[in-house]
Amino acid sequence: MAAQPMKSRWPGLLLLAIILVVLALMPLLVNNYWLRVATGALMWAGLACSWNMLGGYAGYINFGHSAFFGLGAYVTAFLMNDPFGLPFLATIPAGMLVTGVFAVIIGAPTLRLRGAYFAIATWAFAEVLIQFASAMDFTGGIGGIGLPPYLNERFFYYAMFGTAALTYLVAWALFERSRFGLKVKALRDHEPAAEAMGINTALVKLQTFVLSAVTASVFGAIFAYWVTFINPKSVFGGDITDQMVVMVLLGGLGTLWGPAIGGVTLFVVNRLIWMHWGDTAFYIAILGAAIVLVVLFLPNGIAGLFVRRKANALEKVAEKLIGGGGER
Within the chain, where are the H helices? Predict the structure, then answer.
């Protein structure tokens, strides 16, 4: 009996191992164009996971998550240019620190809000950063700011791959396999009850908010160096957060692998549309249709289908065991 759960995990572990091997060998299997597509897919899967930490596991819908992506991008751009001229890897901890400070300053008061009020407050924060970056000379204003070019697609692919893998590992360890994750889910399900149980919900929410923000900043830093040019709209824009939200909803809100499924699916669809029809508004229509279909037919996302199948299988096993016990 004890071996049954472990046995049921083997197919999933085998599939995960195959996916990781394929991803590790991807630069040897595809040309530079498809390698860039794979790099972008990994970035969006990681960003969706970072948003899911707060929006899915904690239940706080953040419509300003692009603010932290943009902070990481701008800190890297600022420090790699004159007068600092720092190497790329040295800028990532600085971006994480700056983003973490902003997350504490913004999160402490806004996390007292719930629902639409919290969503609007976070959206406003991202809009403020767009206006600030557009007005300041040191950010390049509306015209943006360039970074030293580094034309090595494999480097950026493995940077995104490693960061995405670490993001999902952290999410699994903290939110799926620890007491901290149980606290986060408890406040999501019923915050007053969690407080009555002695959970410091204010601290848990702030810790989750900071972790979610700092993770997004790392992807922003890699993105800035990868594309070699950023402006306020390209890294702080509301459409960035919108895509994360739709990706998580499509894949499965509050699940581990849902953001990866939704992120990769929608980004690849985006690239295929661009390849065949050019830069059109068709992708926006796809996003809208995805939201409608998820709400109507997949309220738990694509990942919810697998969870439901697993639950049904366990119920059948339990029924057989109970039936067998009754016969004896």
Answer: 3-29, 32-52, 66-80, 88-110, 116-135, 153-171, 179-189, 191-196, 201-227, 232-236, 238-251, 258-277, 282-297, 301-327
